[in-house]
Design brief:
Layout: E1 2-6, H1 15-26, E2 31-34, E3 49-52, E4 58-61, E5 65-72, E6 75-83, H2 89-97, E7 105-114, E8 124-128, H3 131-137, E9 140-141, H4 150-160, E10 164-173, H5 182-196, H6 203-221, H7 224-238, H8 243-264
Parallel strand pairs: 1-6, 1-7, 7-10, 8-9
Antiparallel strand pairs: 2-5, 3-4, 5-6, 8-10
Helix pairs in contact: 1-5, 5-6
């Protein structure tokens, strides 16, 4: 089961939401359900959208949650995606976890803007609340304490219910915040493959990732401040010899972000 939400707290550069939407398509998860989530949104912050069909006729797309089910490589797959809630988080957690069976393994996907260079592989932090699962997958046990968003709450609540769940967060360059990042989506996809063994084949993603990186190169070249910033980030990245050290840096960045968010609220 893969879970991702659109919103400012969990989906930097749309890395997580883009991945699950692409997987719904390529895996042909046609058995879908729209959950009754009207009471979980404050529409000033999760705005409805006008969409138009091929004839220009308008309809309204309300924020909500969709559950998509199917089979991939002989195994049942569920993808839950939609907008992160603004209200009644306790009820929302219960609603989402009613979709989870005792044999399901949950992968919580998120993106975070961080101090990482776009010219290097984007790091992914993997952790879990389950010490046994952490040992099996050779990932960290989550030791964070402080303000948290809906994905973190789902991880904790899953552990209390005896469900297997891991968190995967990709670090996205914080100087490139205005556009989706196929490179971040690709990094998340690779992490899902690594930790679940489920093959992901989205051929266009590598080409889009290269195009995104070239576009980022051009954007940086136009701004002397960004040129110097990128050089510093590359030097910091390249001086880190151990792969896990970059993950530690993203985890620390994540904790700083969450604590800042808590103070602002």
């Amino acid at each position: 089961m893969l879970i991702a939400f659109e919103g400012q707290d969990a989906d930097a550069s749309e890395a997580a939401s883009s991945l699950v939407k692409d997987l719904i398509d390529v895996w042909r998860l046609d058995d879908s359900e729209i959950l009754d989530t009207d009471g979980f949104y404050e529409f000033r912050f999760s705005e409805p959208e006008i969409v138009r069909d091929e004839n220009g006729r308008a309809s309204i797309a309300w924020p909500g949650i969709e559950v998509h089910r199917g089979v991939h490589e002989g195994a049942p797959i569920t993808v839950i995606q939609g907008h992160e809630p603004g209200l009644k988080w306790r009820e929302f957690l219960s609603l989402i976890l009613t979709q989870v069976g005792p044999e399901d393994s949950i992968v919580l996907l998120g993106g975070l803007h961080a101090e990482v260079p776009h010219t290097r592989p984007l790091p992914v932090v993997a952790n879990t609340e389950d010490a046994g699962l952490a040992a099996d997958l050779d990932i960290e046990v989550n030791g964070y304490a402080g303000p948290i968003g809906i994905l973190g709450l789902l991880g904790v609540e899953s552990a209390w219910r005896g469900l297997r769940a891991i968190n995967l967060w990709v670090g996205v360059p914080d100087y490139l915040t205005d556009s989706p990042s196929p490179k971040a989506e690709l990094a998340l996809a690779s992490a899902v493959e690594r930790y679940t063994g489920v093959e992901i084949d989205i051929p266009v993603l590598e080409e889009e990732s290269r195009a995104w990186e070239l576009g980022a190169d051009e954007l940086v070249e136009l701004n002397p401040h960004l040129v110097e910033l990128l050089k510093g980030l590359e030097q910091l990245n390249d001086s880190t010899e151990l792969p896990e050290a970059s993950g530690d840096a993203i985890a620390a960045e994540f904790e700083r972000y969450l604590r800042k968010r808590g103070r602002e609220k």
